[in-house]
Amino acid sequence: MTTHLIINDPRLKVAVVSGYISTVRGDALLERGKGNTCGAQHVPGLLAHGDIPDMLGLAAPKPLLFEMGKKETCFHFPDMLRAYQHLRRIYKAAGASDRIAADIHPDDHRWSGRKAWAWLERWL
Q1: C-alpha distances in Å from residue 91, one per residue of 59, 110, 111
Q2: Which DSSP letter does residue 26 get?
Q3: Residue 54's closest CA among 34, 82, 19?
Q4: Handedness of CA 50, 96, 1, 115 (dihedral sign)
């Protein structure tokens, strides 16, 4: 939900995306579920234009913090890292490389909060 809101709602100035950064092409279709995915990943026509990190690039230069669990069971952790690195390149091209960060925690699919509050305070 946060992914879609930060892109589409101009009232939102900063976001913490917890456990969602991944790709449809890599994670949802090939690695994890062979098509068994969360409905929020299914954006009609998305793959004709890019993938989830490209869609998130539309949020630039809004500050984004991504929480990723090393023991993630809803998404494939290596794909999450690839998606995050792709989005970092988009933010760099937008001149906003200081506005994207990650909190890689040791747990599963959950809110970490370790860096979130400081991130929100910094940008609000």
Answers
A1: 9, 25, 23
A2: I
A3: 82
A4: positive
Report pLDDT digits (tens) over 25-48.
Answer: 776 656 555 544 566 667 778 888
CATH assignment at residue 52: 3.40.50.1820
Give residue 73's pLDDT band: very low, low, confident or very high (50, 70, 90): confident
Residue 14 in tokens = 């900063």
Gap between the Cα atoms of 124 and 32, Å rounded: 36
Around 122, how many Cα atoms within 13 Å sit in the side-chain half-sphere?
Answer: 16
What's the burial of 51, exposed, middle or buried (CB within 10 Å: 0-12/13-18/19+)? buried
Domain that holds residue 70: 2-123
Angle, alpha carbons 46-50-44 (nearest 5°): 0
Taking phi over 0 as left and psi of -120 to 50 as alpha, with beta for the rest, 16 belongs to: beta
